[in-house]
Amino acid sequence: MNQNELQFAVFCIESIAEHLQTNGANVYTKLTAESDLMDQYIIPFYDALHTQSKEYIVADIVGIMQKEGLAP
Question: Which percentage of the chain shows pLDDT scores above 70?
Fold first, then answer.
């Protein structure tokens, strides 16, 4: 993971946490320990995802989390 991908991962975690009204540590756990979304989706698709709006990114990732039972 390079610096841009790391910054994007943090942006995603904090943005999702804000949307779900929880903390970043909880979202990080859901994206890494409880699933492989960080390693299999967010980082591999960084090039496409980082060009989208914050709202799109959050809705996209939260939608996947919901399908996997990781978010309400």
Answer: 100
- Sequential DSSP letters for 5-71: HHHHHHHHHHHHHHHHTS-HHHHHHHHHTS-SHIIIIITTTHHHHTTS-HHHHHHHHHHHHHHTTS-
**Does residue 72 sit within a domain?**
no
How many distinct structural domains can be found in the chain? 1
* Distance in angstroms (rounded) separating the CA atoms of residues 69 and 65: 6
**pTM of the predicted model as reported, rounded to 2 decimal places:** 0.94
Question: Does residue 37 belong to any structural domain of this protein?
Answer: yes
Q: How confident is the model at residue 1 (pLDDT cuts 50, 70, 90)?
A: confident
